[in-house]
Specification:
alpha+beta; about 150 residues; 5 strands; 3 helices
Length: about 150
């Protein structure tokens, strides 16, 4: 048995072309799920647009994360209850944005309502259901700027 025959057997005797096609199909599906394509492969014709959207999403996610980290670093601890969550229809990297109405309570203060736009990956949506309780960090300079910490 030659080198390539041994290599083929090392991979369970599967057809390498079929494996490559399956991998490409998975990559195409991931791009479609993230909203970067219609499910077709990235080609020279659409690579610029796909890359530009990925870069724009990266910038949005980076700014969003930096703002949450800033609030968590300086914020006063409090508690909250989600009163409503409405899908805005916006997506970043395939993840939906929700407009949340959150009742926030800081120690020694009356509860107040914050309207917050939050990216909620689908697998975590149940954690943001109406009535769920969360700890929060509240920006001392702007009580409307909060970060959910649980």
């Amino acid at each position: 048995m030659g080198l390539f025959g041994k290599s083929k057997n090392a991979f369970g005797g599967h057809d390498m072309a079929a494996q490559a096609a399956a991998a490409q199909a998975m990559a195409d599906q991931a791009l479609r799920d993230a909203g970067y394509s219609d499910g077709g492969p990235v080609t020279m014709a659409n690579a610029g647009a796909v890359g530009a959207q990925m870069s724009a999403d990266h910038d949005v996610l980076n700014a969003y994360g930096q703002e949450l980290n800033r609030i968590i670093a300086i914020g006063a601890p409090g508690s909250s209850v989600i009163r409503s969550a409405v899908d805005t229809g916006e997506r970043t990297s395939g993840n939906p944005w929700y407009q949340l109405e959150i009742e926030v309570t800081l120690p020694g203060q009356a509860p107040y309502t914050v309207s917050k736009r939050e990216m909620v990956p689908p697998q975590f949506l149940a954690n943001y259901a109406e009535g769920t309780a969360h700890t929060v960090a509240v920006d001392p300079a702007n009580p409307q700027a909060i970060a959910l910490t649980s």
